[in-house]
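Teaching assistant's notes for section 4

Start the section by putting this record on the projector. Ask students to predict, before seeing the second block, whether Probable nicotinate-nucleotide adenylyltransferase will look compact or extended. Collect guesses on the board.
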Amino acid sequence: MAGRGQKIGLLGGSFDPPHAGHLHITRAALTRFGLDQVWWLVSPGNPLKARGPAPLEKRLAACRALVDHPRIRVTDFEARVGTRYTAETLTALFRHYPGVRFTWLMGADNLASFHRWDRWSTIMASLPVGVIARPGDRISARLSPAANRFRTAQLRGRESHRLPMAPPPAWCFINVPMVDLSSTAIRAQGAWA
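Reveal the predicted structure now:
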């Protein structure tokens, strides 16, 4: 799916359900970070959530139905290689795709709680991280333990195109027009069963 030297963004998550907000931040990441592709890593489950997601096949099908962009790929890589945590997934990706320049992508809400992820500082030290603004999470993300610990590794938003080639640790917070959608709210409305 990728060759040596390509710049690939990785957007991991449950996608339970996928929605226009996921597409919005993916398109922004492609442009602002100068990526060749973005892969949606649809996870089998989220270790930080008590409730399990909808069946993987249902979520993959919904993602594929939503995505109509030649540079966005939907993948079940984590299920195929049997990883549960992001750090394990990254190790497997680095092994399967040597020479690919991966950039981890996350919404600001994830940066705010990133210090709760398994081996989060190892993740930051392994590859560049692109953070995309989300409604209501800008301040908490910028004041988070991860942002504080890696403050000196932050690129300014106007330097965002440099991120994929920056040696880790490196991260960049970008502001984009907001789409106020969340999978949690969609499930709460009963629009995803």
